[in-house]
Write a structure and sequence with these properties.
Blueprint lengths: L2 H18 L4 H15 L2 H11 L4 H8 L3 H33 L1 H13 L4 H12 L5 H19 L3 H18 L4 H10 L3 H29 L12 H8 L9 H25 L5 H13 L2 H19 L5 H32 L3 H12 L2 H20 L2 H12 L12 H10 L9 H10 L3 H29 L6
Length: 481
Amino acid sequence: MSPVVLLLIGIGTVLVGILWLRLHAFLALTLAAFVVGFLTPRENLLHHWEVEKKESSEVAGKLADQSVGKRIAEGFGRTCAKVGLIIAMAAIIGTCLLESGAADRIVRSALKLCGEKRAPYALSGSSFILGIPVFFDTVFYLMIPLAKALASRTGKNYLLYVLAIIAGGSMTHSLVPPTPGPLLVAGELGVDLGEMIIGGLTVGIFGMMGGFVYARWANNRWPMDVRGSEDLTTEDLKTMANRTDDELPSLWLSLAPTLVPVILIAGYSLMKQVFGDEPSKGQQELLSVLAALGDKNLALTLGAGMALWLLTKSGAKKGKELVDAIRKSLGSAGSIILITGMGGAFGGILQQTGIGSEVNAWVDGSGMGLTGILLIAFFVTVVIRIAQGSATVAMITAVGIVGGIIEPNGEYWIGYVALAIGCGAKPFPWMNDSGFWVVGRLAGFTEGETLKTFSCIISLLGVIGIAVTLLLANLWPHFIF
């Protein structure tokens, strides 16, 4: 059976499972992995292991004769080993930032620094930072009361404030680890996590700036008064707004759980570039220390420890309440780890069909080279995103499709492919996307208003992101690495 046909069957199974059978994403991905695994002929498996993975005929034969269940289980275990601990620690950091008031402190400090006239920049910058360890839906829930309070005070710019939050938080959601999507994509493609953070922040900043242009245009074209919502009551607004600054942690303590892991992970990658191929003895010793501290699992664990200490110190949660808050965050992380792990397994099964060789042959025939690979990665992710709604599922499915065509040969930085997939996870969110309903309900928008505001700006962020990625890839194939 043709790899393209197997690919279409796999994607179709995921879509039917999620949209028609209403299965949890983990179950839909599991079903798809087994369906494609059973339908993949042995000759496809041999081709994958011998030609694409360069294994000997003997080893390829043994791998091809493995049961479908074993191949899926190995892919699931491999992916969980890469991202499981990081996702759990990131969930703890996010919960502690919210519950301790640290996230509130970051936003308030940004607003004080920028002033009321520059409030949109403060809102976007705050959501950009918070979107690194905290999921977009949660960031929006945290910040929408501030947008409503500011708009109520000034009597204008409500839509601008809302879109500013979306522009910042959405970019880091799909481009900067340890958010699950970019974390898995980086792991599957073998991208150094520090390099992925630096690249994601670079492209993300350009995307956020482009989003501002649309936000200001939309705010002038469709001026809106502050809207109420069923999900966010007046009491909720009062509770969030009535905290005094004295009740909140200091700014540096609030930033530490997020920035320290990012600095440790990215710092090692940067120092390797600064010291070059032949570091001195002192530089080698420093690199060894940074390598230990910059390990993604250790860095995120340190961040989680600081976040837990911050929550305990704040007194916002005590005793059983503190335990329950952490248990809830880990419960949420467990579901995400299952989805991410099975997404990695499904991607591995897709690669074993030989789809990589098919796509690679098409790219070589088109003569587009790296640009062609990046565009394929982008549009494959876009199609899956539009079809089933979840940006994370789109990313973990797409990396399984395009991962087979990637051959790390030193000609370009592999992270560009990961960034292209992250940008492709944006266009076009509509009614099958949970974020669509979260933004619409909390902001008080109608479905039509949500489509022309939230859906359009998210799509624009993705288009700007891939344009910047293509530009960087053609000007600096190795980026700064």
